[in-house]
Amino acid sequence: MGLTAALTKHLRAGELFAALESVTRPSAKWTGATFDVFNPSTGELLATLPDMGTDEAHAAIDAAAAAQSLWAAKPAKDRSAILRRWHDLIVEHVDDLAAILTAEMGKPLAEAKGEVLHAASYVEWYAEEAKRVYGETFPAPANDRRMLVIKQPVGVVGTITPWNFPASMVARKISPALAAGCAVVLKPAEQTPLVAGAMFVLAEKAGFPAGVVNLIYAAEGAPIGRELCSNPKVRKISFTGSTEVGRLLMRQCSDQIKKVSLELGGNAPFIVFDDADIDEAVDGAVQAKFRNAGQTCVSANRIYVQSAVHDAFAEKFVTRVRELTVGDGFSAGVAIGPMIDGHAIEKIEAHVADALAKGGEVRCGGRRIGTNGTFFEPTVLTGISHVMRVAQEETFGPIALIIRFETTEQVVAEANDTIYGLAAYFYAENLKRVWHVAEALEYGMVGINTGRMSSEAAPFGGIKQSGIGREGSRHGLEDYLEMKYLCMGNI
User: Fold this and answer.
1) Model confidence at 197, in pLDDT bands (50, 70, 90)?
2) In this structure, what CATH number is given to the domain that contains residue 359?
3) Could you give the number of structural domains in the chain?
4) CA distances for 147 relative to 159, 273, 385, angstroms
């Protein structure tokens, strides 16, 4: 069994559907286990895929290693052209890709379409950046030599992507690797492997040579991760996911001193100062908190509001949150889809229960919707203290906390009091305050008077235990290049 009618009913009959069916169906020769992919909104079975393991990962790495030197030797202009064709194919098939994404992940269809186009923007960006891998020359201490630096691809790259942005994470990770001249092996999240499969179908159609892009389906990430980390043919690991798994991958890579890029958990503060435009701050907070049902690493986990505007902000924010519609991502007008699975619901319920037991108040929401599904009401909690789990841990759900504060020094200290340092947001008008707070917040990304800041042109990533390296921008390409110094004597 490959794709089921529960998925294909959302797709147009055509080339992408047929190709995806061929790459997701376990072949007659497949004797291993399989795993199922379900729609979190309905529980319907979408596909049954071959459950690959260490042997298949090893074979994919061998294929990438065999293709590596030829791909690295290809002129940058040629690599750029293939990436550009891939971009065009993604845009051409945006409706089908969005439908696949909504079916397996649950996010509203319009939001899914936006994610696919965002994914395409990374492919386009790195198609252009492929031609801009610059070296440098610099003056030598004597006239008998010349000194210069060149940059070369790091080699085979192993990548592991999460379920919450299954299209954009694929593009954001492998586009710079491919642009730099690296072959890649990718393991998508087991909950959302289908859109990755569809994107790889389009990559093959775009003209990537055999072995340059390799996809592994697996129900368990640990065996694949161990193989990617321990196999000496893999020169770099790029991972997006939890901080706990990131620590494990770093340890597994340490014996080989393997390069790693890690985009890990967050605990983003969202600060509203008393000089902020409250209506704009409410808009930004709703966007930063409830995008993808709060299932994002840059979600506003703690909303701090200065005392003078606390009550006005809370009232307007609660009113807006009550208007958010929850439902199946394919239904018109839905703003928030399901949680990815039952475990996500259980974590949210545990965080809400802990907050209530310790003096918190539910201003709206706070309950699971239905008994068997994975929908949860958009929720606002007040009366929050730092002893509560919801203030210390990344909830990864539609739970907004409003915390009162008095002074700039207090809120900056509380915002920074976390092991995480991925994203932060704040709203203020006073320019002196803006500069002070932007520089004082210990985060890799800071949104100022905006609730959304991801862009292919900007470096995405965190500090502290939120990760290593950057994705997007010209800096994202550098993470897939080695710097080589050449000193030429007898000149």
Assistant:
1) very high
2) 3.40.309.10
3) 2
4) 35, 52, 58
CB 196 within 8 A of CB 186: yes
Q: Which of 12, 25, 193, 212 is nearest to 92 (CA)?
A: 12
Q: Is 226 helix (H, G, I), strand (E, B) or coil?
A: helix
DSSP 341-366: SHHHHHHHHHHHHHHHHTT-EEEE--
What's the pLDDT tens digit per position in 249-272?
999 999 999 999 999 999 999 999
At 408, give phi and psi (nearest 5°).
-60, -45
Which one, of 156, 130, 152, 133, lies nearest residue 236 by Cα?
Answer: 156
- The neighbouring-strand residues paired with 369 are 375
Tell if the pTM clears 0.70, that is, is over it.
Answer: yes
2-59 pLDDT, tens digit each: 888 888 888 875 667 777 777 676 655 566 899 999 999 999 999 999 999 999 999 9
Apex 86 CA angle, 82 and 90, nearest 5: 170
- Residues 116 and 120: their CA atoms lie apart, in Å, by 6
Same structural domain for residues 422 and 312? yes
Q: Verify that 137 and 243 share a domain, yes or no.
A: yes
| 21 labelled catalytic | no
- Structural domain of residue 177, as residue ranges? 5-264+467-485
Place of tokens 């020094």: 409
Query: 3-state class of 377 per DSSP?
Result: coil
From residue 35, give the alpha-carbon distance in Å to each of 26, 164, 402, 416.
10, 19, 41, 41
Are the CB atoms for 174 and 188 separated by under 8 Å? no
Catalytic residue among 263, 377, 394, 471: 263
**Cβ count within 10 A of residue 419:** 12
